[in-house]
Specification:
The chain is mainly α. The protein folds into two domains: 49 residues; 234 residues, MetI-like fold. The chain is built from 17 helices and no strands. It is globular and about 75 Å long. The relative contact order is 0.11.
Length: 319
């Protein structure tokens, strides 16, 4: 009976040589890259920590010590002020929540329907409708024609619908979903459902949407962030109706008032300056408002994070 000799490597492979053989990148290079990216990730937390620190500082301590990463004297007066006296702030907060939820749902419904239609090879005008949305990515009418259409033709000025309709469609998101439906949802699945008697809407609702959850969840978060941070549509079209001012526009107006006060303090009388100063929130209140604005997005992000890579990389494949 033949005896098999145990294999003995002629050369001992070092750990860093093995890393190069497997990944093509030396171990010391990977360590340096990890350190750099970790430092950059930590540095992005500095503005957030500074904002939270200012919101927790007392007005006197803020005037004495200035802005610091860690509050010298912790005070919750800014949060108490918003909870007790911020009726206008809470109304704007509610408007932003309503616009974000409504706009995200409406936008997803319209874009998924459009993407499903142009992703089907048997749709006779799929190339025409794809060209329509692609053309708008290259050319648009501009701000002035859009303003005329919205105010003079659609008559949406000072109406909450203007905040919802201005951002519910994105040609880039439609193309991403179209590509995802073409590459990740086999045509045989839809065809077999049709053989069983399902119509187009039933195929879209029961088959395509459940299989496109990664891309839909990713785009839903992008839409929600865009609606939550939007202030420009309100700045253009909300002029007299103060009941539908979104929270971002309210914060922008507060900043403009502070800048106006600082730049025109010399031209105002002492009584006018003090009256205007007292009507404006302090730095702690403004930073508290910023924290409250960013908090919902920070809470929602971890739930959508696992869909990001799969939804974007698969949906962004050219097809």
């Amino acid at each position: 009976m033949l005896k098999t000799e145990k294999f003995k490597p002629t050369k001992k492979i070092k750990k860093d040589e093995l890393a190069v053989a497997v990944t093509g990148v030396p171990l010391w290079v990977k360590i340096i890259l990890y350190v750099i990216t970790t430092g950059l990730a930590i540095s992005t937390l500095i503005p957030l920590l500074l904002t939270v620190s200012i919101s927790l500082m007392d007005a006197d301590a803020l005037a004495t010590h200035g802005y610091t990463l860690f509050p010298k004297e912790i005070s919750f007066e800014a949060y108490k002020y918003i909870l007790n006296n911020g009726a206008k702030i809470w109304r704007s907060y509610g408007v932003t929540i309503f616009v974000t939820i409504s706009g995200t749902i409406l936008g997803l419904a319209m874009m998924t329907l459009y993407a499903y239609a142009i992703s089907r090879k048997y749709f006779p005008w799929r190339n025409t409708f794809t060209f329509f949305i692609f053309f708008t990515m290259l050319f648009n009418g501009g701000t002035v024609p859009s303003y005329i259409v919205i105010t003079q033709i659609l008559h949406l000025q000072d109406k909450i619908w203007v905040l919802i309709l201005c951002g519910c469609l994105s040609t880039m998101y439609i193309l991403i979903m179209r590509t995802y439906m073409q590459t990740s949802i086999p045509d045989a699945v839809v065809e077999s459902a049709k053989i069983d008697g399902a119509g187009e809407f039933l195929c879209y609702y029961k088959i395509v949407l459940p299989m496109a959850v990664p891309t839909i969840a990713t785009i839903a978060l992008f839409l929600a962030i865009a609606y939550w941070n939007a202030w420009y549509p309100g700045f253009l079209y909300i002029l007299q109706n103060e009941d539908i001012v979104p929270i971002q526009l309210l914060l922008k107006r507060i900043e403009n008032q502070v800048q106006f006060l600082n730049s025109n303090a010399s031209s105002l009388s002492y009584a006018e300056s003090e009256k205007l100063r007292q009507s404006l929130p302090s730095d702690a209140v403004k930073m508290c408002l910023v924290v409250m604005i960013a908090l919902p997005i920070l809470i929602a992000y971890p739930f959508f994070q696992r869909f990001f890579i799969r939804g974007i990389t698969i949906g962004a494949v050219k097809g």
